[in-house]
Every structure is written in C-alpha cells, then in structure tokens.
Amino acid sequence: MKDKVLISVIVTAYNIKDYLPRCLDSLLAQTYENLEIIVVNDGSSDDTAEVLDGYAAKHPRIKAIHKENGG
Predict the structure, then answer these.
(1) pTM listed for this prediction
(2) What's the number of CA atoms in the CB half-sphere (13 Å) around residue 52?
(3) pLDDT in tens, 16-46
(4) CA distances from 37 to 1, 24, 34, 61, 64 (A)
(5) DSSP per position, 18-59
C-alpha cells in the first residue's frame, strides 16, 4: 500500500558536521516512504553545509536550506 500522507521532518543544523551523517542516515533508514527531510543550516562555520549538500545531492527526499546565523 502506498503511503499517502507527506510527513516533513525539520532538522536544525549549526556546526554539527560530525553528527549530521548519523542523523540523516537514521532518517533515511525509516520505512515510511512519503517522507521529506528539511535541514536548515543556520550559518555553520564548520563543514556542515558541505556535508548537507552532499546528502541532498544523493537523496531527493532531503531539502537543504542555508541561511545566515540567526542566533
């Protein structure tokens, strides 16, 4: 049976390059198919943006949003 309801998971990210892969791998491993993962990078100064962009390029369910740090 096809999942009908879209579930959106929003992840906030600030300087978490070491932890982001584990988080995203866990979300991608979920069995619910109609799932979008929105990750908001809040102006990280480490490589969080690069890690996020790498995942978003490989996985169409991941949407990357980059913004200046909002504090």
Answers:
(1) 0.91
(2) 24
(3) 999 999 999 999 999 998 999 999 999 999 9
(4) 22, 8, 10, 6, 9
(5) TTHHHHHHHHHT-S-SSEEEEEEEE--SSSHHHHHHHHHHH-
